[in-house]
Amino acid sequence: MAKTKTTTRSKPATSKKTETAGSAAPDGAADIRMIPLDQLEPSQLNVRKVAASASDDAELLASIRETGIKQNLVVHALSETRFAVDAGGRRLKSLKQLAEDGVIPADHPVPCLVEDERNAILTSATENLQRAAMHPADQFEAFDKMIGEGRSEDEIALKFGVSVDLVRRRLKLARVAPEIIERFRAGDLTLECVMAFTLTDDHDRQLAVWNAVKGGYHIHPQSIKRQLTETAHSANSALGRFVGIEAYEAAGGVLLRDLFDDRASAHMENPELLERLAIEKLQAAAKPFEGTWKWVEVHLSVDYGAFRSFGRVYPQDIEPDPDLLAEEEHLIAREEELAAQNDGEDWTDAETEEYYAIEPRLREIEALQRERQPFADADRAIAGVVLTIGHDGALRVEKGLVRPEDIPAAAMPDEDSADAGDASSPARPHVTPPTSSTPVPTSDPAATLRKADGISASLADDLRATRQHILRAHLAADFEVAFDAMLYALCEQALGRSYGNEALDISIRPFQAQDREVLHADTVAQKMLEALEQDLATDWMKLQKPEDFRTMSALPIADKQALFAWATGLAVKPQLSSDNRPSPIIEEIGARLDVDVAACWRPTAQNYWGRVNKGHAVATARKLIGDDYAEDRNRERKGDIAAAMERAFAEAASETEGFDAATVAKTTRWLPDGMVFAGATEAGADTAGAAPETEEGDLSAEDSLSDAESNEPSSLPAFLSEDAA
Question: Is residue 373 part of a domain?
Answer without folding.
Answer: no
